Amino acid sequence: MNVVISLAELFYTEKAHVRNLKVMQKLFQQPLLHEPWIPDELVRLLFPNIEEMIKVHSEYGSAPPPPPGLPNVVEQHTQQVMHTRIRLVYVAWR
Fold this sequence. Notes:
The protein is elongated. It contains four helices and no strands. It is 80% helix and 0% strand. The chain has one domain (2-93). With 94 residues, it is an all-alpha fold.
């Protein structure tokens, strides 16, 4: 079960990473390329391989989706961990 949860977390993390890379590209790199006072070479130095990174990390995120019941398992595991940590903090506080 831990392996399944770890794989689900890996896929989620990769998708979030790709989303962040695309945001960086759209909000920062592309606008800088359209600024006449900023040399293209500087933009290439700031974002040297962002397109390649998006491509590679998108391939990781395009793996087959986890089984249908997995989100519930991940959510239950997360809730158990949080409840345990809350109990530990409460006991230490008392």
